[in-house]
Structure formats: structure tokens, C-alpha cells
Structure to design on (430 residues):
């Protein structure tokens, strides 16, 4: 592991905390979303893909520990994909304009669903608990084969979730006070200002 | 639902943290290797008895709450819709065994002891720090999220309405949380710098857990047992 600077050591635990705290907002607003990768996407925009990967691994481990539900750790590869993709997307200035942000969220949602699908279907037979499984059950009950029901449920949840997550990070980046933004040179690049 | 370390003197509490983690890893792997539904069901029985023997029976209630939705959905998806009750029981027992053994680990391994064991194994200081700092940051940020919700409710936050409006309401909730967290970064970075966190030198844990011969033998035996079970399954 490469030596980490103190700013990253301070940022990453807070980003993981953001990932886990967003769930409370989702619950209060009764939204069919997770928003549990907002902190990871934000770190990707502020500090690059490898800091985001560390945030993703820690998030999944801590979420598993805090919830006591070991099923979540199996979805670690999905969180890693989100971290790497967001880092490279930020490097390509996707937060510069609204259409680019929406497009990046859409692509990530489809990619995340495609990666989550074999884990949900092959390892857990489509039973991963929570809202996604309710949608899977409804599709399956409507006569769609289970493997496609699992994929459709993942796709519908992930695409909306990642679009909203990317939009939220764009709003945060635009709202950063100049003094704070100057601490993270990559943020200016993600917004297409450099 | 509070899940975490429960003080005790059982064999798993006394064991080296890596031994307890190896037991959990082996059970999780065996849940997939052993043929269902008998194999995973026997594993569930074994880990439930372990929890009772370790005197952490309270985790069984938590395990029941976490595992119940899996049983319901597996029964619906595989038992009712796909007409395959054997697969429903196998999947549910598999997941239940993993959940129970993981909760046993959480209840019997103190996080600080685990970090000490990892540092003694020469894992980088950064990793050990990140793990313990994150476990402290999460409850703090969750509490702050609750405060923000309460504050916005005082200002007339409406949690009902169409989907698009509810998504829009997330912004005044999320922005103070995220910007507040980012404002902390500088302060924490300076504190870490002052405590020598940037130094590349190795740290020595003050009181690392003892890794006894019994611990090492247990870990090796579990590894061998897993390989044998896998070989039998593949050859059969």
C-alpha cells in the first residue's frame, strides 16, 4: 500500500460516514434509492480513483460490520467498479455539464446492475433482501424467468440511484467554497475548470 | 438494533482474533461447499450452538431479524413461484449460517484487539487507522444526519409528495452533511500531522494478542478441512 497523505487519511473515513448516513435521508424521504455510494463518487472527484477504491472497500466492510448482514460484503466488486469508474469519469470532466453528468450516471447504473446481477442470481438465487428483492419477486410472479427478473430489478434500482448520486456530487462540487475547493485540485478538473 | 462486541470469557473471546476470523471464513465457505439442504442446515445448528456456548445468545435475536426476510423471499421466489422448496431451504440456511457466524465474530472480537493483531502482523498503519477512524466516524455522521433531518423538519420539510419533489428535498438534507464533513478534513489532517501519522516508520502495538500454538493449529486444521470438503465435493 502506497504511503497516504494525512488529508486522505482524514477524508476517507468521513466519506465512508457519508455513504452510510445517506441511508437515513433515503429512509425519511421514502425513496426507492440507496445513495450509499455518494461519498465514494465524491472522493473519486476530489482525490482520484485509488482513494475512491479505498473508500469503497472500507464502506462495504464497515456497512457489513454495522448492519451485521454479511450478504453486503459479496457486493464489494460492484462498489470497486463504481469507485474506479467515477475516478476516471471525473478525470474526463463529467461534472462539467448536466448532460455529461446524467450520461455518466446512466452508464454507471447499467454497469453496476450488470455486475451485481451474477452475484445476486448465482450466489443468492435472487434473494438479497430489501426493496430490490420485492421488485424481483413481482417480475418473477409476472412470469419473467428468475434470472431476467433479478437483472431487471437491479437495473431499475441502479440506474436511477447512480444518476441521482452523480447529480448530487455535481451539486456538492459546485457548492464548494473556493477556499475548500483549493485544497482539492482534482475538483476543479472534474468540473472542467482546468 | 445494536450489534457489536459483548464482553465475555468464552473460547472465542480468548482466541487470537485471526483464529475467530478464520472460523467465520471457513463456515462461510463451507455453506457453499457442503451439499444442501442438509449441509447448510447442520452448519446453522453448529453456529447457533457456538453462540450459546460462547454465551452470546443475544445475537440470535438479531440474526433472526436479519435472516427472516431472506427466508420469506426465498420461500416466495423458489418455493412458491419456482416450485423448488429444496433450493429455498438450501439458500436460506446458507445465508443464515453466514449471518450467525458473522454476528458471533462481531460479539466476540473487540475491534481494538483486532487492530492490534493486524498491526502486529505488520499491516500498514494507514490501513489500521482508516479502519478504526471509520468505525468512529460512522455513528457521528449518522447522528449529524438525524440532527439535520430534525432541523429541516422544524423549517417545514415535507416528506410526502411526488417522486421528483422528494428527490429534490434530499439536496437541503445532504449538502449540510457533506459540506460539514469536508470542512472537518483540514482540522483532522493537521491533528494527524501533529501526531506523526505522516511518518513512514513502523508502529509497535502496546499489547498485541497472543497467537498460541492452539490458535495456529486451529487455523491450519480449518484450512485443511475446507480443502478436503472441497475436494470431496468436486470428486463426487
Amino acid at each position: 500500500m502506497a504511503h497516504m497523505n494525512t488529508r486522505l487519511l482524514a477524508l476517507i473515513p468521513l466519506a465512508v460516514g457519508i455513504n452510510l448516513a445517506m441511508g437515513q435521508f433515503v429512509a425519511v424521504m421514502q425513496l426507492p434509492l440507496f445513495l450509499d455510494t455518494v461519498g465514494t463518487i465524491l472522493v473519486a472527484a476530489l482525490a482520484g480513483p485509488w482513494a475512491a477504491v479505498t473508500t469503497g472497500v472500507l464502506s462495504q466492510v464497515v456497512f457489513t460490520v454495522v448492519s451485521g448482514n454479511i450478504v453486503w460484503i459479496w457486493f464489494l466488486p460492484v462498489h470497486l467498479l463504481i469507485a474506479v469508474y467515477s475516478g476516471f469519469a471525473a478525470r474526463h470532466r463529467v461534472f462539467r455539464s448536466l448532460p455529461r453528468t446524467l450520461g455518466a450516471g446512466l452508464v454507471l447504473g447499467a454497469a453496476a446492475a450488470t455486475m451485481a446481477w451474477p452475484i445476486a442470481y448465482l450466489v443468492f438465487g435472487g434473494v438479497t433482501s430489501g426493496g430490490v428483492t420485492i421488485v424481483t419477486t413481482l417480475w418473477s410472479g409476472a412470469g419473467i424467468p428468475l434470472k431476467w427478473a433479478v437483472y431487471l430489478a437491479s437495473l431499475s434500482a441502479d440506474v436511477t440511484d447512480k444518476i441521482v448520486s452523480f447529480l448530487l456530487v455535481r451539486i456538492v462540487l459546485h457548492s464548494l467554497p473556493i477556499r475548500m475547493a483549493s485544497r482539492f485540485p482534482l475538483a476543479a478538473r472534474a468540473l472542467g475548470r482546468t | 438494533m445494536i450489534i457489536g462486541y459483548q464482553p465475555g470469557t468464552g473460547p472465542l473471546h480468548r482466541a487470537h482474533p485471526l483464529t475467530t476470523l478464520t472460523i467465520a471464513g471457513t463456515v462461510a465457505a463451507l455453506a457453499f461447499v457442503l451439499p444442501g439442504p442438509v449441509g447448510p442446515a447442520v452448519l446453522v445448528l453448529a453456529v447457533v450452538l457456538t453462540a450459546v456456548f460462547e454465551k452470546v445468545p443475544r445475537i440470535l435475536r438479531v440474526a433472526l431479524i436479519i435472516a427472516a426476510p431472506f427466508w420469506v423471499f426465498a420461500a416466495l421466489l423458489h418455493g412458491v413461484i419456482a416450485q423448488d422448496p429444496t433450493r429455498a431451504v438450501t439458500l436460506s440456511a446458507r445465508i443464515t449460517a453466514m449471518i450467525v457466524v458473522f454476528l458471533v465474530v462481531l460479539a466476540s472480537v473487540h475491534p481494538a484487539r483486532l487492530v492490534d493483531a493486524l498491526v502486529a502482523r505488520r499491516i500498514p498503519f494507514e490501513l489500521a487507522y482508516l479502519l478504526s477512524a471509520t468505525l468512529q466516524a460512522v455513528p457521528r455522521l449518522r447522528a449529524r444526519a438525524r440532527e439535520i433531518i430534525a432541523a429541516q423538519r422544524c423549517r417545514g420539510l415535507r416528506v410526502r409528495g411526488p417522486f421528483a419533489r422528494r428527490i429534490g428535498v434530499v439536496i437541503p438534507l445532504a449538502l449540510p452533511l457533506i459540506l460539514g464533513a469536508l470542512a472537518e478534513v483540514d482540522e483532522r489532517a493537521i491533528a494527524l500531522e501533529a501526531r506523526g501519522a505522516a511518518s513512514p516508520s513502523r508502529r509497535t502495538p502496546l499489547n498485541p494478542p497472543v497467537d498460541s500454538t492452539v490458535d495456529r493449529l486451529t487455523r491450519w486444521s480449518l484450512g485443511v478441512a475446507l480443502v478436503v470438503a472441497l475436494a470431496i465435493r468436486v470428486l463426487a
Chain B touches chain A through 71 residues (CB under 8 Å). DSSP finds nine helices and no strands in chain B. The mean pLDDT of chain B is 89. The two ends of chain B are 43 Å apart (CA to CA).
